[in-house]
Amino acid sequence: MPNLRVLLENEKGKRVLLLGNEAVARGALEAGIGVVTTYPGTPASEIGDSISAIAKDAGLYMEYSTNEIVAVETAAGAAICGVRALTAMKHVGLNVAADAVMTLAYVGVRGGHVIVTADDPQCYSSQNEQDNRYYALLSKLPCLEPSSPQEAKDMVPHAIAISEQLELPVLLRTTTRINHTRGPVTFDTLKRPNLRGEFVRDVKRFVMVPANARIQHKVLLERVERSKEISENSPYNKIVRRGRAVGIVTSGAAYNYVAEAVEFLELDAGILKLGMTHPLPELKITDFLKSYDKIVVVEELSPYLEVQIKAIAKDHSPNVEIYGKIKTVFFPFFGELSTRIVIEALAEIAGKKSPIDFKTIDEKYRQADKVLLPRPPILCPGCPHRASFHVIKTATAGKAVVPTDIGCYALGIQPPLQVGDVLICMGASIGTAGGIHKVTGSDTVAVVGDSTFFHAAMPGLANAVYNNHKVTLVVLDNLTTAMTGHQPHPGTGKTGTGKELNRILIEDVARGLGVKYVKVINPFKIKEANNILKEALKTQGPSVVVFRAPCTLLVLKERRKKGIEVEPVKITEDCNNCMACVNVTGCPALVQKEGELTVDETLCAACTLCVSVCPYNAIQGGVV
Amino acid sequence: MDSCNIVLAGVGGLGILLAAEIIGTAAVKEGYNVRVSELHGMAQRGGAVVSHVRIDEKALAPTVLEGTADAIVSLEPMEALRNIKFATPKTIVLVNTKPFKISGTKYPEVNVLLEQLRNFTKNTILIDAAALAEKAGTGITQNVVMMGALAAVKRLPMKVETLKEALRELVPTKYLNINMKAFELGYDYVKASK
């Protein structure tokens, strides 16, 4: 693991290797940000985690908020009082936060407030690949897009300056290939964070009743006019390469592929690189369009730039040909770009030939592909979710509809467990379960993780109680936010700055919301867990079963720290290689070698699930 | 040295990210420009994982272009083949020969995989990194064994000493000796097999 203390070094000019997200964290320290809020989500998680690791020494306040809208509200509260703030989230987090962001744009801030939205083209770890630059258009807020870890750092103080100049929050839109790329970053000096704010009452500005909102909307529009000037003069909106044959407009991660593709094809191309993509620098773009007959717009996901550039061209440069993805699809609307995709598209547009014949490589690869097996992500060996899904499957005889939710447990859909029938967004399992049960009458088991429960499932559970939906909510409580890197949450009682405060127990919340049947059980006690779940399914009205067992990765880490070796399970001579354990659990530590069952001792976490499911008591070891 | 493109392949949990960070850190120590691509979150859980390292004054993209890798280092035989698109006939492929099986499927013979690899490049070095890692002290240092092996094939522009320095910074002090030994064993194995 990298030593994040390097982020605290106040040495201007120091050059270190940083992950894009660590660079954003460093940027926060250089900007004198006093309050950082976040809800973890890939690819944004390490922004909050880096700050969490050093918050005490940096002298700033950091919190893992219960969800993204609370994170934005908390940071905005501080920024309204003049303290600089940063909120980080993944792209879909901004959907959750959108209600606050849209009207925060009317209210504005006094201290700078940067809202980082990390998009995930290619859905590496997400349920969709929406393009959040449209949130800038929708909210009218300024938006910056870095292309490298260095820019990811530099743009934080820059965004804070814009935010304070306009008294508006500023969006910093990254994508996975910025967040999760390491590159050299040169430090600037640190700025002491100010944590002391003052609330100055201004009802007309801060209380958005209709009469005030109508006026504040106009204030926002005036600020948009001023932000256009900032964009025209932005050092991040610039021509980075001169050329005559074709002009390319691009931004963010796409710029990197464009720059390399142009060199690779030896194109006589000019490149206008946009780092501030809302509002667009209309005059700068107009000038650029006028220098070319052919313009290519290269961007990931939606044609956000292309549509606006076409509008600009219609007024100022109607004869220029604009290539991108609207008229003819040279670049896909989905997935991430790559140097290859950009090379192939530019070669076609410019009538050039690529020095590498990719089609031949593809042809050759097709042979290799025939022997490759897919290797999708799976639940870890020892994962308590594996036991939980086994119990859900047996207790419901596989007949229930099981809406699932966002977290590692989405991997339950993989064979052989194959549990999970609907997955939409954070907290959706309990809501969709209500609707499904209402119209089908079938047993409905909603699955949700512990962190997700606090994030978005509580209103759904209240709804199930209020409207008497006969659904069972199974909370897979592994005592951490596992998927995103083991962040704490209200159920752990630990805070982002390492304090141990009160735990909020999920069972208490469920009872408090009026759920009559609430039970907690360790899912590795599969018989008891099975009986409890069956009982829950017989209950009239909603029921809640908490399957509680810590994430195995944390257990193993703890054991390693204490120097306790894992004693793998043993297969006894009673084993007749029926492979029930393999077929039921799909645990990667159970390996067949020439028809015989073996245990991969480097993988086995001695969780006991295989011990429990073996029909011949032929596996021994482990303790629940 | 104009550029150096390395593709690191493996399975989530085998330590690809650490391996990539060792190379990236060493590159920055010697003043090179570098890009290291990583994958986190759901992509990490036991699935196929890949990380690219590009050391090049002009490197901007975090990923290697197909047909331009200098070396492919794979912690698992099938994952080497999965990433063979990046190879040219000059690419050197370092393969840990221990398969990481996929539950519920019939894993092909390792030789079948290696045969396919050789359709792309004859420069393959097979390493029983699992055994060398055990010899170093623990099986989990396979990734570091492979870093030692990579250091021995002289495709990286950095000195071996700088790689070791990066390793020293990135692994917990408690496990430093085991990791250094793993690095040496990988290095010596390749040197001896030449």
Characterization of this structure:
The complex is a heterodimer of chains A (624) and B (194). With 624 residues, chain A is an alpha/beta fold. Chain A has 4 domains: 4-232, Rossmann fold, CATH 3.40.50; 237-361, Rossmann fold; 384-557, Thiamin diphosphate (ThDP)-binding fold, Pyr/PP domains (Rossmann fold), CATH 3.40.50; 565-620, Alpha-Beta Plaits. In chain A, 41% of the residues lie in helices and 16% in strands. In chain A, the strands form 6 sheets. Chain A has a 7-stranded mixed sheet, with helices on both faces. A 5-stranded mixed sheet of chain A has the order 9-11-10-13-14, sandwiched between helices. A 4-stranded parallel sheet of chain A has the order 15-16-18-17, sandwiched between helices. In chain A, strand 17 (517-521), helix 19 and strand 18 form a beta-alpha-beta unit. In chain A, helix 10 packs across helix 13. With 194 residues, chain B is α/β, with parallel strands linked by helices. Chain B has one domain (3-193): Pyruvate-ferredoxin Oxidoreductase, domain 3 (3-Layer(aba) Sandwich). Chain B has helices at 16-29, 77-82, 110-118, 129-136, 142-152, 160-170, 176-193; strands at 3-11, 34-37, 48-56, 71-74, 92-96, 124-127. A 6-stranded mixed sheet of chain B has the order 2-3-1-4-5-6. In chain B, strand 4 (71-74), helix 2 (77-82) and strand 5 form a beta-alpha-beta unit. In chain B, helix 1 crosses helix 5 (142-152), helix 4 (129-136) crosses helix 5 (142-152) and helix 5 (142-152) crosses helix 7. Chain B is globular.
